[in-house]
């Protein structure tokens, strides 16, 4: 059976990707610096092999024949997901793939030193090359898929999402978010706030992190926690590798990072076991993935009921201090401050950072603006959405993110889609299971069961809209996200 | 150029093996238990790919054509080493390779519980299957290589070594080793000995281990030290991963284990950089590899001059105690006690364990004895060489080693070849550079430079006999090993 042959072929690809995921994790966490060159060579050979696996000339016939075979619904979906990965890998000419990889590596590598040096002029020619190749790729993908250029890139991260829908979404956000930010700042201006006083020893932070991961149901038989310069959730779904970094002056950063990555991890650990080796068993999209990390970090961990559980743990690990009172911690974890850096942004200002990036990357790919116009456009939008200037400050402006350096255009919207999906999931859960206050306070397993049943166990077996509608009653709905922000940040009681 | 094509092909193979080595290390050190099934699947897919890489139909033509190309000496050797690996991978029919892998996995897996249960009867049928397949493999290899059956297996681990030569070697050892063991025991019987008193905290043992690794020139930019149930030296030569295990009651085990593995590691780290990705740049043989670990553990670390340097480190990490006096430590680290377990054996009795295994595995493969006769033969030889009985005690007798469970016949002689080569290297070094006492006491870098120059930098560019003769003046010479044992264990002064 051709479907069987395809499944075996994609399982083999999954095994190769497993080796790449573990060696990639090792590179970021365990590898001594001198091992890097050999590792990079080995991983690049693996990338070529994985690409070859998807270029196998037998695949075309197998897909044709499997299309004629009688398959039940799940296997039909599995076939479609295999076909999507295959199509994605074969859309671009090999020369272009190689050129993109080369230009991306070069630009990303240079960016690591050009950003701290605030060197926009040095960065521009490298970035222009990346953008030029990304536009070529977008054109080729667009033609083959019958999509607009930007949509053809978006499709890689968020299948089914289109910029027409994102335009509407972000227009909506633009209409209310800047005003909401101002009102929240006005409200918070007079609220008392104590900052937790360090130092917070790394070993204690790690112990606390492990305890919170256990509380959040992380399965330590199928994963671990380590340290890396840039936190991530890697490994494979049977063995999920989280990382964080510790700052002994800051108790919030590592802990919230761990909680965020634990959300990603539980999604991976909860994917449907029998589909694990095939595309159908993998995470649905980047937006859905981010919805799980943000459900854990924002909906759950910054909820006053969770903070009430966190406070005694902080006291136990670091000793009592006034800043650890639940009231103060709740204010601490929900303080809103417009800033220049996306990864440091709070829950309320974060979407403004994404709106800005979305507009710019869409216009860059569609040819409506040029690379050289980036700093000015960035500054203009930063002023408009957050009232801050980045004039001359490239490193905290348009040079701050890694995404565009290697041509990952179309990724940014996932963050805000995730935040909205997470708010919808929290609202639906409350409607079905009772107040979140109570679920978080005394019935955490019910929270995780809901996510397992409505999100995790479906892998890629449902389209995103279908998945979200089935779980929450509606597909993407920014109004629920707005209600969440209004209720958490503008209602009278801190505990609202 | 076909030689270039071959080199690229083998470099690619090397990259795949890199991924396997790191993921194998991870499996033993970092992986949570629940990740094992997925990891085993991924590694088995990789093994198939590596095998396919060596079965590539283009290789035959490339080797034919490359044989006609004009190559300098080093590239000719490189070609020969590639050809040897290729030949080794293509000697056996695929069915037999699969059957061996399956039977070996099954037997090894069962052995892990049958050994503690002392269950010889349960083990025998599984072992018979492994032996039967190993004999078939030996026959096929023997015919293709024009060697005896056992020699064709030996060739995998110790290229160029033959059983006729090993027979002579072990006959020689048999003539003097049992008598020497008795005399050493007589001499040591009345020597005072204090045992170091624990507990020795794991963290302190690790700190001491790292300090000793640094003293021994381990390059931490290209390697690391971790913990695993069974210590090994893994990873890749650019990133060598040592492991050990800590016993808080025993200060000797982990430390000497670390020193042993550091010997393996420095060989790997010292291999010729420009040949690293090709067979010619890999370690010469298992015997030469073991000569480096045993040079470090036996020739160097148990030398009184090294123990004099170790004593203050032990005091610093664990506090002073009478057992840490250099005299006592020297006696402690050279105490000879015949025992049943090979891996616990001292320097003097160790070769007796190997003589026994060599005779048995040679006769098993040549069809001169059957699997069912193993316990009796084991007991008989154990009585003869070490005066100990293993009657009815299978778990500390013929069930103690992992090697035969998966069909690794022909490996055991490497241990004793390594011990002999190490003694020859120490003797040659003394002759060329001055007394070991002085080199170890004040000129350790000279020791490592000698090994770098005479052993490490040659990779597989010289045949073993050539390598050893060039370094030590003679190929394999057991007389030097005998002199070393006599001088260290029977001369009057403890410090001799």
UniProtKB/TrEMBL annotation, chains A, B:
Reported cofactor(s): Zn(2+)
Gene3D superfamilies in UniProt: 1.10.1370.30
Keyword Protease among record annotations: yes
Catalyses which reaction(s): Release of a C-terminal amino acid with broad specificity, except for -Pro
EC nos: 3.4.17.19
Active site per UniProt: 261 (proton donor/acceptor)
InterPro entries to which the protein is assigned, alphabetical: Peptidase_M32_Taq (IPR001333)
GO MF terms, alphabetically ordered: metallocarboxypeptidase activity; zinc ion binding
Domain of life: Bacteria
Keyword Protease: yes
Cofactor note as given: Binds 1 zinc ion per subunit.
SUPFAM superfamilies named in the record: Metalloproteases ('zincins'), catalytic domain
Keyword terms, alphabetized: Carboxypeptidase, Hydrolase, Metal-binding, Metalloprotease, Protease, Zinc
GO annotation, biological process: proteolysis
Xref: CDD domains: M32_Taq (cd06460)
Residues annotated for Zn(2+) binding in this entry: 260, 264, 290
Similarity comment: family membership: Belongs to the peptidase M32 family.
Functional description taken from the UniProt entry: Broad specificity carboxypetidase that releases amino acids sequentially from the C-terminus, including neutral, aromatic, polar and basic residues.
Record's protein name: Metal-dependent carboxypeptidase
UniProt source species: Oceanisphaera psychrotolerans
